[in-house]
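General statements about sequence and structure are easier to judge against a single worked case. For one protein, we set the task of working out the structure tokens from the amino acid sequence alone. The sequence in question and its structure tokens are set out directly beneath this paragraph.
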Amino acid sequence: MICLNILRGLLPKIDPDKGEPPEDHIKRFMMVIRLMGVQHEDVVCRLFPYTFEGKDSMWYFSLRQGSITSWAQFEAAFMHKFRDEKTPDTLMVELSQIKMNDKDRIKDRQGLD
């Protein structure tokens, strides 16, 4: 039990509501896993849920038991659920199409009022 609490403290946390890209979280998680010397895929799969906060936790517990049988499946399911599918080009087009009325204030558009 003490060992698990120490591991939990070392693992990076992700909360999708805070905007961290899932790719970055997986990179940070795998870096810690390598530093800890974890080599067994089943251990990686068992540790990954301890990095979840917020919606990630709800998503993980909604998975059908036994539906994830490898790290590759876990990573793919996580990325599919939390990755933003828009390409940088698509985002630039959307950004360029934002228009303000003459009476709009930038402060109002940012939700800072």
Summary: The radius of gyration is 19 Å. The chain has one domain: 2-87.
